[in-house]
Amino acid sequence: MLFLSKPEYPDIKISRQVCRENKKDYRQANERAANAGWGKIFQRREKMRMNFKKKSLSFFLCMMLIVAMALGITGCNGKNTEPQTAVTQEAGQNEEASEAATTEAAKSEEATDEANEDLASAGEVQVLGEGSTVFLLSVVDDKGQETLFEIHTDKETVGAALVELDLIDGEVGEFGLYVKTVNGITADYDKDGKYWAFYINGEYAQGGVDSTDIMEGESYSLKVE
Predict the structure, then answer these.
(1) Is residue 93 part of a domain?
(2) What is the pTM of this model?
(3) One domain for residues 213 and 132
(4) How far is CA 15 from the centre of its chain?
(5) Which residues span the domain enclosing 146?
(6) What is the pLDDT of residue 176?
(7) Which 3 state secondary structure label does DSSP give 212?
(8) In angstroms, what is the C-alpha Rg of the chain?
């Protein structure tokens, strides 16, 4: 009995092996391609996420800067308000003081005018002297008789103006001129216990005639007391 051996075809084996290797390479190539595609997608997503983070950070920094600037402006306005308020209050106080001074001056002027009117209405006024400054003088003797004078002078004090017109006379002491004679009438405290009292706008003067500056609009009086 004749046995024949199975024929071998080496070319066919090689072809099969090549096919298997090609399929493996093809599969690996597809996997690499797939991995490469997902890698690009992942890189794109990662890049987008980084861009979003950068934009978010920039937006947050801008908002913080805006808030800081707003707080700074508010603080400056608050600081500037305090000096402005102090200046406004000081201006208001100065205005009130000015109004008070104006009111007081008006009252004083009214009182002076009333005193002058009273003096003028009391009797005939004698005009004496020459000069740019004018004031009224009332002389009341020991009997209560009043004589009115309208004095015109360029002197600075009441005493100097009256001495220049020979209306008064007296003695000069350490406290100034001690008036003894007015309009020819003498009052000597050492002899008869009477003296000449000096008044300004109806009020007892704090100084003598020679130390009293002439104030235009004021009236002066010399009375035996």
Answers:
(1) yes
(2) 0.46
(3) yes
(4) 108
(5) 123-224
(6) 84
(7) coil
(8) 59
